Fold this sequence. Notes:
Blueprint: H1 86-92, H2 96-109, E1 122-123, E2 126-131, E3 141-142, E4 145-154, E5 160-167, H3 178-184, E6 194-200, E7 207-213, E8 219-220, H4 221-226, H5 249-268, E9 281-285, E10 288-291, H6 296-300, H7 308-328, H8 337-347, H9 350-359, H10 369-375, H11 377-417, H12 434-446, H13 459-471, E11 476-480, E12 487-491, H14 492-505
Amino acid sequence: MIGSSSSSGSPNYEEVDPYDPYGYAxxxxxxxxxxxxxxxxxxxxxxxxxxxxxxxxxxxxxxxSGQPSFVRQPLNYHLYSQPIPETxxxxxxxxxxxxxxxxxxxxxxxxxxxxxxxxxxxxxGYHSLVPLENTSGERRKFGNxxxxxxxxxxxKDGLPYVLRRVENFRITAPTAFSAIEKWSRIRHPNIVxxxxxxxxxxxxxxxxxxxxxxxxxxxxxxxxxxxxxxxxFPNGHGRNPAPDGRVSERVLWSYIIQITSAMKAVxxxxxxxxxxxxxxxxxxxxxxxxxxxxGIVDVLxxxxxxxxxxxxxEDFNMFGRLVFSLCCTSLGVMNDLQKAVANLSKGxxxxxxxxxxxxxxxxxxxxxxxxxxxxxxxxLLTEFDETENANDRLxxxxxxxxxxxxxxRLLCKFGFINERPEFARDARWSETGDRYIIKLFRDYxxxxxxxxxxxxxxxxxxxxxxxxxxxxxEERIMLISRDEQSCLVVSYKEVKACVSSAFNELGLGExx
Length: 512
């Protein structure tokens, strides 16, 4: 990964105050065609974005943030296992980083709600609602409407979903949901999928609820790259980007290509995104982004009809503003476009500058998603190569778990056979015949001791023995009883035959 770009020479922008509860409350049909004052720089201008920054507090999409109601002790995800030998780590076990990340997501999914919240027990087939943001005190707003995000479990498939509730919004025409029906048919890797939308009075008033897929522990671009700054000065100005928060050019190109791919899919479906900003784009895994909150604006602004071609052009403008915000780590970057371009040029290549200026340029016949793909064509190959490499790495991790699964099946057979208290009215069934050999083999694999009588914990020995057993090799080993009065020399192939015979005798049949 290319290192972060230098942040020297960054101008000081006047930031939009993310905590101003009225700073973004302008989503109004009467003002939808308002245009900002011109920001001219070399013939370029910035179109007004009527949906910029919906949230009134910290402009961070809380779709997938952690449950704030509990202070839990973090789990030690490595506590239950010994360090894995290097020679075996890549062959039999998924990497610690991936395992820990997946376990953290699983923990987040099953976080229980705090008591006494007064939430509905059931909501149109969804239950176990957990608020993903504060429900009292300072509240977030989506445009002019109060909005709350919940995680809930579907009664149909048992999976978790995100429910964004817009309060005090009444659907006046059933056709308002027509856009949601179109959105629900879009399945794209860079868009948080929409499942359905409905109106409800379960919260005590009219509410609009839109259901999305749930991606636990995701972070917004704002959290990751814009908010990660040094301390703010008392007057609210002069915040300099932290070196570890500024996006590198390689990662920036990955974001640009992913958002472009999502835009093409949406525009081809006859829709527009309308929510491209740093608080609505989620990082769901390493450099993997998804655009969230799609479709809600289409319902909220159903009565204020606009030409789809105009809305799609506004997508370009919003996209350009996002690129400038990431490059300059500032939400107020477009207050002075000339300084923004100068700052972008210092930290990024000319290609990034050309892309950003194209996105905020005046509408023209050449300003189409197809022409934009032509501009970034050479970068697409790099992104494609990285995607293939990531796929290869994940397949390698999956192969390690496939090998692991074979060994688990063997251990399950041992568990059924060894130390069985009684079978077929024979209390010593597990201690006689073929089962005695299996018991001695179990001791050979797991219960070895050194010359001082201390247990030998050798994962490499265990894995090697189990693999040879599974393969049924002809190699011979010496099995000694615990009292050292019996000594048997058998092959792995013979032990495997004993395991199969004893397991089949139980009448359970083969596993796998």
